[in-house]
Amino acid sequence: MKLLYENRMFFGGLLTIEEPHLIARYNAALKGFGLKPVKLNKFQIDMTGFSPEVADELDDPEYLDPNGVNRRFIILTPEQAELPVVHTQFSNTEELMLEFFDKNRREIFALTIKDVIFGEIEENVLRVDNLDDLLRIDQVEFKLSTASDLLGKAHELQGMIDRLQKDPDAWQDRALLQSMVETAKVTGDIRANELLPKEVVFRHHAFWTSHFGGVYIFNDDRQVTVIADPATKGFRRSRPWEVAYIDINDHAQVYRFLLESGRIEPPRGAWVEQSGLLEKRAHMLVIGMIAEREPDTEFDDLTDQMLDSWVRKNARMIERDGALPLLEFVVKRTRDWSAIDMQEVRPEHRFLISRANPKHADWWLTNRLISEYLRFDFLTLFVFNKQGFYRAYQDWPEEYREYVVETVRDTYLKDKRALRARFYG
């Protein structure tokens, strides 16, 4: 993984913490979780406060996620809202954290001037032993603490202010007034600098979780749909009266669900032609085939003419596989604004020529699910499915690894938003 780390593709884009007061606050949060403080004088953190260096020193990569649910977090600065989440067992951890930052921006700013915020994204389960436990998770609540009990003191001060405003005799209570003064010395004027986050409860919408080897849960108005391996504990047995189950290996059923629920875009005119995604997939497909059959190839030296020559030389194998001819056919047909009959396409190839509907709320998660079926498409894997990318990376030959890293670095990492907008809408 050294190559990935050097190119900021593994634990990339993190925030360096080296100021002594911030390190002291981080250690105070660790103590609040019952963990040992670290002796590091410099480390990096992600949006949740997870640090690979701290994980190494504690010899515990799950120190902020001990049971795979009720994820812990440590917030030292509002700047964390701009960081990625690099270690999680739920795909929507980043979404929930972003919502919390967005809804409580002023309060987080005021609190982190003086203290560290830490706590748990509390779900209504303590452990995940089967699918039923996952299905019980419908909302989360951010349970918050501060090292110096700043939140507790703000609560106390708010209570005293309320009493002063509502009780006409409270102005004569010198003890109350003195207590307000002393507490305000710690909290500041909470009327001007609000310290109490207003929104801490958020819905747990569609998500992927690493539990049981990977489970996708989609929520519609009247239906919950689980997409997973049938060997998953509780599959088709947990709440069968309200949950639909789809075998993740059943390409036809998965595709039909995504299409009928409006989550996927089949190959239709404008997006195929304007995005260039299918042409890029065709290129990555050929490169992947070469890597599998001729792993010592110098991929940086390959020209388009050399790729065309390789395709012609291996025409029989490519024709039997069917993926490349389909991509080329669809690109040609859509340029003529002709619709493609998906019933004529092999179920395992339908994802090749589709992308998630960018107007659907589950756009990111759907692209992640699509990437499960397109392991050669390393760009979609890296953008939407980091865990899947890292697993695939382990099995790639060295020359191909270098080519993939260089391509991702020079395209996606150069301008993430531009690439996502172009290819995925």
Question: Topology of this protein?
Answer:
Elements: H1 2-6, E1 15-17, H2 20-32, E2 43-45, H3 52-58, E3 72-75, H4 93-103, H5 105-114, E4 117-122, H6 131-135, E5 139-146, H7 150-166, H8 174-187, E6 201-203, E7 207-209, E8 215-219, E9 224-228, E10 243-247, H9 251-260, E11 264-265, H10 269-275, H11 277-293, H12 304-313, H13 315-321, H14 323-335, E12 355-356, H15 363-371, H16 378-384, H17 386-395, H18 398-410, H19 416-424
Parallel strand pairs: 9-10
Antiparallel strand pairs: 1-2, 3-4, 4-5, 5-6, 7-8, 8-9, 11-12
Task: Provide an overview of this structure.
This protein is of the alpha+beta class and 425 residues long. The chain has two domains: 2-149 and 195-203, no CATH class; 250-424, no CATH class. The protein has helices spanning 2-6, 20-32, 52-58, 93-103, 105-114, 131-135, 150-166, 174-187, 251-260, 269-275, 277-293, 304-313, 315-321, 323-335, 363-371, 378-384, 386-395, 398-410, 416-424; strands spanning 15-17, 43-45, 72-75, 117-122, 139-146, 201-203, 207-209, 215-219, 224-228, 243-247, 264-265, 355-356. The strands form four sheets. A four-stranded antiparallel β-sheet has the order 3-4-5-6. Helix 7 (150-166) packs antiparallel against helix 8 (174-187) and helix 11 (277-293) runs antiparallel to helix 14 (323-335).
